[in-house]
Amino acid sequence: MSPKSALTESLPRSVAARPAEAGPPSGVDVPAQTYCFEVLRYGQTPGDRPRFQAYDLVVRKKMSVLEALLTLQEEADPSLAFRCSCRGAVCGSCAMSINGKLNLACRVQLHTLATRRIVLEPLPGFEVLKDLVVDMDPFWEKYNRVRPWLHAEISAAQENRMSESERRRIDQYVQCILCGVCYAACPARQANAAFAGPAALAKLYRFVADAREGRSRHALQQQDAAEGVWGCHTIMECVGACPKNVRPADGIRGVRRKLVSQKLQRLLRRKTS
Ligand code: SF4
Ligand code: FES
Fold first, then answer.
1. Given pLDDT bands bounded at 50, 70 and 90, which one contains residue 266?
2. Side by side, which strands form the sheet with 29-41?
3. How far away, in angstroms, is 97 Cα from ligand 2 center?
4. Contacts of 46 (CB under 8 A, 6+ apart)
5. Using one digit for the tens of pLDDT, what is the confidence trace for 120-157?
6. Ligand 1 centroid, distance to 236 Cα (angstroms)
7. How far is residue 66's CA from residue 132's CA, in Å, rounded to a whole number?
8. What is residue 159's predicted lDDT score, i.e. its pLDDT?
9. CA distance 179 to 192
10. Which of 63, 81, 152, 218 lies at 20 to 30 Å from 163 by C-alpha?
11. Distance in Å, CA 146 to ligand 1 centroid
12. What is the pLDDT of residue 261?
């Protein structure tokens, strides 16, 4: 089971089944308009170079960028490669650059864009495997490093015991769909390839801030480094980029606060002993 499927299974049903934040519904008829899609293509043959390929598509109904890509793949070019699954801003697999802005292709409706020239590129900062498909392994490796699960032993009887205010503390982090947009947008991660990045650290805080968590002090210390929470320069690109309104920088601040308070407690204990 991939880390992502493990996490999705742990989401409450109401969150996992939340409908797409995709604006007005697709499928409503609109006056026919021709869109030109310029897709950065790469990896079709060994040794090829990245190049833009243009496709025209006559659009007669409201549709998302992802629906347009699926139409182009079906009707114009079956070799066009991109990832998608849920089509509803839940699985996080269709993240890409759309006219220079990072977003989920299923979340962006064509009619909301100011132009009919749509430039599609893979997420920056990842190795491109083919066209719009990137290698997410470094992202998953860093995500796994924070051991993103509840470390507490919870009995079936205790499982749901969490007050409303305790739940609110972790709410935004539960919304994270691990799309990698914040990771791609983060300048600190671009400057320091070893930095864990916003998504992994925000997910760590999701568990640290969970009232049921039983994570030891030592488990957090791995992130007490430039590759961990101190690698963030608080540039906040992650907050503006996240398509699910998560504020990863808040989570990073939360882990920092926890680390500092653990250190202070240790100092005080030493002084009083
Ligand atoms: S925090 Fe937002 S941008 Fe980052 S991986 Fe999660 S959903 Fe995507
Ligand atoms: S296809 Fe799942 S988030 Fe876009």
1. confident
2. 51-61, 29-41, 117-121, 95-98, 101-104
3. 14
4. none
5. 999 999 999 999 999 999 999 999 999 999 888 877 77
6. 13
7. 12
8. 67
9. 20
10. 218
11. 15
12. 93
Closest ligand 2 atom to Cα of 20: 3
Model confidence over 192-249: pLDDT tens digits?
A: 999 999 999 999 999 999 988 888 888 889 899 999 999 999 999 999 999 999 999 9
Closest CA to 232 of 197, 193, 183, 207: 197
Question: Measuring from each residue's beta carbon to the nearest atom of ligand 2, which residues come in under 6 Å?
Answer: 66, 84-87, 89-94, 104, 106
Which pLDDT score, from 0 to 100, does residue 13 have? 32
Atom of ligand 2 nearest to the CA of 104: 4
For a mutational test of ligand 2's pocket, the pick from 104, 109, 132, 181, i.e. the residue with the most ligand atoms closer than 8 A to its C-beta, is: 104
Q: Which of 69, 87, 102 to mutate to test the pocket of ligand 2 (most atoms within 8 A of CB)?
A: 87
Residue whose structure tokens are 């049903």: 13
